[in-house]
Amino acid sequence: MTGPSAAENAVLARLDLESIVADAAELIRARGENPGETEAATVEVLASLCERAGAQVTLTEVAPGRHNLLAEIGDGNGPALLFLGHSDVVPAGAGWLGDPFEPRLIDGQLIGRGAVDMKGGLAAVIAAMSAVRSEHPDVRLSLLCTVDEEDTATGALRYIADAPTAREVRSAGEPLPYTACVVAEPTGLDTVVACRGATNFIITLRGAAAHAGNPADGASAIAAAAIAVQTIEDDARHIAQQAPAVPGLISTGSWNVGMIAGGHGTSIVAEECTLYVDRRVLPHEEPEEILEDVLARIRSAIETSGMLNAERITVTGQLDMAMPGFLTPPDSPVPGTAVRAVADAGGTSSIGGWSAACEGGFIARHHEIPVVILGPGDVKTQAHQPEERVQVSDLLVAARAYALIALRLGESSR
């Protein structure tokens, strides 16, 4: 296909940049810092915008003040294209030149917490859904917006707990609900087909308390934790030296010890110390197996370390959060459709991988559908930072691309 068709141009003509920016600004004002706040105000605004676009909105309570949103349009019979987003933002923090939740438009950029991650993308999705519905009411589109993506993914976990798996749907002889998923996270409008998952472990080391004047009477959990951290660092170096999992798309897994808590005072041998650990996982890796392996490595390292009373140290661990990765074959139809759609929308897009994590892996695994990440703004240089901003022209290109993807995939599924 060389450029949009006349029918597609009729849809694109319905997209208005001023309205998209206004919707993104309204979503930014709704806040939703996580942790610290709920997403209630954001979901209320989002529901209103979706209903204005003609969508049927369903809210599912995940926790008090925290609701997943599912917006659906289209009266056709085929499976829907699913857009995926989240309603929370990371805490604003310091370093802003103005109120982070009072959007500013400066030099063609919308500034505010969530402008890039990911309220700009949500506004673009809603605009695209509305434009498609106006011209092609039979095309089925859905937007799933989850809570708590920035922390422990309770919204996504609730969704997959409720929604039938692809295997269950096929066993019941029912049609699959979705044909593909587009995650509207910021990729600079590139088409991401490979994404690592994010796993959080809590590793607890327990020893025995004693007076600091007689450390031989106890077993220091902090000393054992130091060995544990070194063991994790050793494994991090080992996996970093491995060949890329998918050359050009996904590198390797990684470790990060993000927080340590332990001890009661300088004059007490610490009886307990806890490590809060991030492990980025490849699509084929299983978090439970990784946890079992690292615990065994830590126990062995402590036993052979020569530390005082090592035999009195116990090491336990738990899986705090697991967000799976995904890999969509880059030469399959959905990525190609996305790349061409961005080009026809006035932008450029290349197929690649992503160093961050997102909830697309939940969808890929649960519904067994191809997933791509595609959205306005740059996750590396703009997200989770003071003066977060997005180029407003990219919001329009994203909305145009989403509309073209919806039309072209919707046509193929009918």
Quick rundown:
With 414 residues, this protein is α/β, with parallel strands linked by helices. The chain folds into two domains: 6-195 and 325-413, Aminopeptidase; 198-323, Alpha-Beta Plaits, CATH 3.30.70. The protein has helices spanning 6-12, 17-29, 40-52, 115-135, 154-162, 166-171, 221-240, 287-303, 333-344, 360-367, 392-413, and strands at residues 56-63, 66-73, 80-86, 104-106, 109-111, 141-146, 178-183, 191-195, 197-206, 254-262, 272-281, 314-323, 326-327, 351-354, 371-373, 389-391.
Number of helices: 11
CA radius of gyration: 24 Å
CATH class of the largest domain: Alpha Beta
The CATH architecture of the largest domain comes to: 3-Layer(aba) Sandwich
User: Outline, from the CA principal axes?
Assistant: elongated
Structural class: alpha/beta
Helix content: 25-40%
SSE sequence, one letter per element:
HHHEEEEEHEHHEEEHEEHEEHEHEEH
Low-confidence stretches: none
The averaged pLDDT comes out at 95
Per CATH, the superfamily of the largest domain is Zn peptidases
The overall number of domains is 2
Strand arrangement within the widest β-sheet reads: 1-2-6-3-7-15
Distance between the ends: 19 Å
How would a crystallographer describe the biggest sheet?
A: 6 strands, mixed
What name does CATH use for the topology of the largest domain?
Aminopeptidase
Per DSSP E runs of 2 or more residues, the count of β-strands stands at 16
